[in-house]
Amino acid sequence: MAEWSAMIRRKGDRIGFVPTMGALHQGHLELVSQAMEECGKVVCSIFVNPLQFNDLKDLERYPRQLEKDRELLAGIGCHALFIPKDSQLFLGLVPREHNMGGLELLWEGASRPGHFQGVVNVVERLFHYVRPDRAYFGEKDRQQLSVIRHVAREERWPEMIVPCRTRRAPDGLALSSRNSLLSVEQRKQATVLHRALRAAASVAFAHSLKATSEVALMILGTEPGIRLDHFGIVDPVSLKPLESWEGTDRAVALIAAYAGEIRLIDNLTLDR
Ligand code: AMP
């Protein structure tokens, strides 16, 4: 992979990179398409990163569909697909603790200890092989995006981190590889995440922060099949919970919840 990247760079092409865990859907493909618009050559990687799973069952049941993924990427003209083996990616890797400015302790980090260190160690390794100019990450995983931006800035990574908007199903559910694990019933129930976020957006800034949270939680409560892990209205940069709307024009509402054993996350920007 590193040799391929070096050859592309010698030709003067910019390399775009979309790291994924596979089981690709339209959300992933939009990242690839955006990268293709901005870069001469685009690499997508598929690696189900064991370091970022703190639940072994979640890792085992994570959907895998390599052949279909290859076809989807070929179908949109992605230039290269990188599928490293664990042994290759972890060769000589001693995972280290990155400074994440405390971002790793909030929300997803509180529920999944070690998750973000696992993500960043592998992203850094993937960057080492691919040597991209630009790397594309979805806002769907808002905290992951914030953590990667923070580390990239802190450690002076040369790669430009490019955020991409969340792609949704027509009923609002954020596309996710894990959605394929939902039963028909759970799939319907899962739309409550987006409905709760939209409800929060519709009253945000006009009503108090507390009332805005209550509206979202009330909507979530209408779906007993969905078990809330966390909901928060946060500062878009620090991801710390807001105390009030004062001095703020923009906030983010974050949700994580379970449908049965399947963990779902989503978020929405709230604008004044
Ligand atoms: P994953 O395969 O879940 O690790 O995701 C790979 C990349 O795709 C990450 O940067 C995600 O944030 C992004 N992504 C996943 N789902 C979506 C979506 N529905 N819309 C936009 N980006 C997404």
Topology:
Layout lengths: L1 H9 L4 E6 L5 H13 L2 E6 L9 H6 L4 H10 L4 E3 L3 H4 L17 H5 L3 H16 L3 E5 L3 H13 L5 E5 L19 H6 L2 H12 L5 H13 L4 E9 L15 E10 L2 E10 L1
Parallel strand pairs: 1-2, 1-4, 2-3, 4-5
Antiparallel strand pairs: 6-7, 7-8
Helix pairs in contact: 10-11
The structure holds adenosine monophosphate (AMP).
Adenosine monophosphate binds next to helix 2 and strand 4.
Specify the CATH class of the largest domain. Alpha Beta
**DSSP E strands, number:** 8
**What ranges have pLDDT less than 50 throughout 5 or more consecutive residues?**
none
Share in β-strands: 15-25%
Supply the helix-strand structural class: alpha/beta
CATH architecture of the largest domain: 3-Layer(aba) Sandwich
Instruction: State the helical fraction.
Output: 25-40%
Shape: globular
Order of helices and strands: HEHEHHEHHHEHEHHHEEE
**Terminal-residue CA separation:** 45 Å
Largest sheet: spatial strand order: 3-2-1-4-5
Instruction: Give me the CATH superfamily of the largest domain.
Output: HUPs
Radius of gyration: 19 Å
Total helical segments? 11
According to CATH, what is the topology of the largest domain? Rossmann fold
- Small molecules bound: adenosine monophosphate
Q: Provide the residue-averaged pLDDT.
A: 97
